[in-house]
Structures are given as structure tokens and as C-alpha cells.
Amino acid sequence: MTTPISTVLTEHKKRFRLSELxxxxxxxxxxxxxxxxxDDRGLICASGEEAEVFLQGQLTQDMARVKQGHSLLAxxxxxxxxxxxxxxxxxxxxxxxxxxxxxLEATALKRLMMYKLRAKVILESAGNRxxxxxxxxxxMRIFLQDAGWDVPEEPRATTHSVDGLxxxxxxxxxxxxxxxSYAKDLRDQLSLKFTPSLQAWLISCVRSGxxxxxxxxxxxxxxxxxxxxxxxxxSFKKGCYTGQEIVARAHFLGRVKRxxxxxxxxxxxxxxxxxxxxxxxxxxxxxxxxESVESHVNEVDEDSIDSAQVVxxxxxxxxHGWVLAVAKLPVNDKPKLSxxxxxxxxx
Length: 347
Known about the structure:
The chain is an alpha+beta fold and about 350 residues long. It has helices at about 25-30, 50-55, 65, 105-115, 140-145, 180-190, 200-205, 245-250, 285; strands at about 5-10, 15-20, 35, 40-45, 70-75, 85-90, 95-100, 120-125, 130-135, 160, 165-170, 175-180, 260-265, 275-280, 305-315, 320-330. The longest helix is centred in the first third of the chain and has 12 residues, at about 105-115. The chain starts with a strand and ends in a 19-residue tail after the last strand.
């Protein structure tokens, strides 16, 4: 069962009820094996003899780890440390690939070009020649093995072939980056047995605690608020990059008090990215028994009101779903992550 923790009243006067997800619910929630295309996302390619050095100075990630065979998250930040773009990075055939929402691709390319100067690096869109497919579940593991892939099982690990790069996102979830011709043949085979479902993939992303930055939320949070330090998305050992001073200060000098957390929601609409939800932090007393949520709206003390800002939300069924939102952490608590989510110890 879920434990009610808050009553929410949005800016648009739509009421939501948030619940913190019980570990048993996450563990027992089953998503059938499936696949989908991710070709509608943006993709930037960085190549050239100074590509690694250039990206090392722009992203929160240690690009040497990406080059060594890991598919990792990386943020490009403002000088004030706020995340402008969030990439999934991979290295294949001597080139770095940065996956992000398509609506931000042109802006991200323009921004990175500002810092290029005389660096020997080529930055270009690659979505028209490199396909991305998402696969999940035991049946997909068997399918990939039958197709000749050495399927990685460790989160963020990758395997390579002449056909593409296969990255493990979390237990039983993979992203395959390949040529468009190889992807077409693979998808033709998949379609004979499985119906593609982007929604199922998005549900698995939210359950695994994977953040997303879109046009409505760019320049909103520092990396730690999105748990990037827990998701191997920030290196605190590499050299300088844009915004590093603020990111490092938050890590070494003080505990981050607001982080992305996973909730279940009930409401008449799916919360939108960037939407601020006002909720009562003294929830257990206020929501006791079977009394209606609406009956308490006018009884909330202003001092007990806090806000949660939506990162990513998915609908499971009409009126119900899951939402990742940046909110104040309970005292002496840490953000809830999937047990399959890679993490690192941080202060």
C-alpha cells in the first residue's frame, strides 16, 4: 500500500493527492517485456582529436569513463551550476554521442558551439544516421542474445559491435544505438512478436528514478537536485567544467536539502514538467482517516506548506500515475531510488 504524505493544490487549481511509494509496490510492479523506438529524441555527435578534451570541459561527467565503455548521464550547466541540458552519453566507432530531448537539440548544439573556439572537434546532429531502440524484460534479453549480443547486466555498462552499442540502463533495461539499417532489420523481427510501447518504457524510466530535463525545466535545478551525483552523472575528481564551483560547493560544504523523489499521484490530469505543486508537509495528521482531501484545503497552516516541482510524470491508468519531483527531503532521509539504480556514496 502507499502511505499518504501530502495534499496538493496546483497553480491551476487542480487537486492532486501524492503518496510515497512503498518498496513492496516498486518491487512487485511488473512491466511486460517490450521495446520501442527512441528515434524521435535528439542526438548530438562529437568527433575529432580533441572531442574528449572539449566535452571534459563542458559536462559534469568524466568522459574518459564513457570512452572506456560506460553509458553515463552528464549535464551541461550554467556558470551558476544549473542544468541546461541533460545527456545520456555513449562512445561508439571513435565518436561521442549525446542523447537528449529533440526540442533541446538545436539549442544545445548552439550552446556547445559557443565554447568550441579553435578546438579540433566537430559537433553535429546525428539522429538521421544513428537509431536508438529501448528494450526491457527477460524476453528482450533472450532476443538480444539470439541476435548475437553479449548483453550487459551491470547498470551503465556497455558492449560494442560493428552494428552498434548496447547499454544497460538498469537491471533488465537496455538502450541500443545502431545504424538505421541495422535498427530496421531488428525492429522488423521484434514486430513479429511484440508491440512497441513508448509508454511502458517511460514508466520504467520513472520507476528507475531517471531524470529528464526538457524545455520547460532547463536552467531550473543544480545536478544534485536531480540526484545526478547518486546516478553516476557527476564526477568530483575531474578537472574544471562550466558551473563546477557551485556543484562542488554543494557537494563538499553542505547537504542538499531538496532532491528528486518518487511519488504516486491521483488527480484529474498528469502533472506537467516544471509544474509547482503545493503540499502539506504535516500530512499524517491532516489526512488521517477517511475524510475527504477537499475538506482540509482551507485548514492548512501556511508554515506547513512546501512545494514539489515536477521533473517527469507518467500515467499508469486514468487519474493515477507516478511522478518524479524535486522536493524537500524528510529529516535524516535520502531520496528513494530503485534498487537497480546505480549509485555512488556522496556526502
